[in-house]
Design a protein that fits this description.
alpha/beta; 434 Repressor (Amino-terminal Domain); Rossmann fold; 3 domains; 6-stranded parallel beta sheet; LacI family transcriptional regulator; transcription regulation; DNA-binding transcription factor activity; transcription
Length: about 350
């Protein structure tokens, strides 16, 4: 038999007060005495009362919910960002609705429709790889829902953003490879329509230029940067008449794919070819050799995204000015890139 749901009327009857008084006490209304508030909260706990969040949202105009859209929650970088967002949101009394687009534009659109129907107070999102049109995000703005982009951001969209300095991360990584004596550095790049991969490519090129090294188009391979893309990229590079002696990868997953192929073909890393990744996924330290990578301060990024959305939720819409926060990357050097 289904257990009866406890209502405001049940608490009111037990305390011999009105349902309106119960509602005000539970919402910490300033005109209710502390004695009444304590009595109502005690009785609500005794009866195991669960408030109707949807009804409360309709009454107050706030759901206390923040929607988060990530491409994939099983990627450690995104799960760490989510952790940071949740920590910040929970401290402020907000809960997080986590969704995954799986890099599907259709799913991204469906998620936004669902979040709008759920009446979330704000949305924090990282764009999917295939997203090239942004009308569904415009819909959020038109509905007056605060929006913050992180990592995979959209510039000049009139919303706040937080990202790592991808240009600097790439520049520093390639500069390290040059310092290790590498002369022919390839780049497993991401799709150039995305801001972060565009900036990583710029950083790669700038480091080569500053070292008076040539930029060879055939050494720049664009892909989705999954593990299989890293394998395919490495196979293509190894077929070249003059093989590269280093590879800078725009993701750790593609770096792992490149490392797998090197080991299968008995190519010694880092003696014959060095490999550098991006994101500092946990598995990079467990491999042999460990993969050098660029750390993106993922938890700090999550905290910052949470702070930005809360600022917008609590602030005046007419006075809102978008903020762009850029975090400093750091190199995590491991055996895959250290020749000496």
């Amino acid at each position: 038999m289904e257990k009866k749901k406890i209502t405001l009327q049940d608490i009111a009857k037990a305390l011999n007060i009105t349902p309106s008084a119960v509602s005000k006490a539970l919402s910490n209304h300033p005109r209710m005495s502390q004695q009444t508030k304590d009595a109502v909260n005690k009785k609500a706990n005794e009866l195991n009362y669960k408030p109707n969040q949807i009804a409360a949202a309709l009454r107050s105009g706030q759901s206390k919910l923040i929607g988060v859209i990530v491409p994939a929650a099983n990627i450690s970088f995104f799960s760490s960002v989510i952790r940071g967002i949740e920590e910040t949101a929970n401290k402020a009394g907000y809960s997080v609705i986590l969704t995954q687009s799986n890099d599907s534009v259709k799913k991204e659109k469906d998620i936004i429709n669902t979040l709008l129907a759920t009446r979330v107070d704000g949305v924090i999102a990282a764009l999917g790889l295939k997203t090239k049109k942004y009308d569904h995000f415009e819909k959020l703005k038109e509905e007056g829902v605060p929006l913050v982009f992180f990592d995979r951001i959209l510039k000049n969209f009139g919303v706040s953003t937080v990202e790592v300095d991808d240009y600097k991360g790439a520049y520093d990584a390639v500069h390290h490879l040059i310092d290790q004596g590498c002369k022919k550095i390839a780049h497993l790049a991401g799709h150039s329509h995305m801001e972060l991969y565009k900036n990583r490519l710029k950083g790669y090129k700038a480091a080569l230029k500053d070292a008076s090294m040539p930029i060879c188009k055939e050494l720049i391979l664009e892909s989705d940067l999954h593990l299989e893309d890293g394998r395919n990229g490495m196979l293509r590079l190894l077929k070249m008449k003059e093989r590269p002696d280093a590879i800078f990868c725009s993701s750790d997953y593609s770096a792992v794919g490149a490392l797998q192929v090197a080991r299968e073909q008995n190519i010694i890393v880092p003696d014959e070819i060095t490999i550098f990744g991006f994101s500092n996924e946990p598995f990079t330290s467990y491999l042999d050799p460990g993969i050098s990578s660029v750390d993106q301060s993922s938890i700090v990024m999550g905290h910052t995204a949470g702070e930005l959305i809360l600022e917008q939720i609590k602030g005046s819409k007419s006075e809102f000015i978008p903020r762009s926060i850029v975090l400093n990357p750091s190199l995590i050097l491991r055996k895959s890139s250290k020749k000496f």
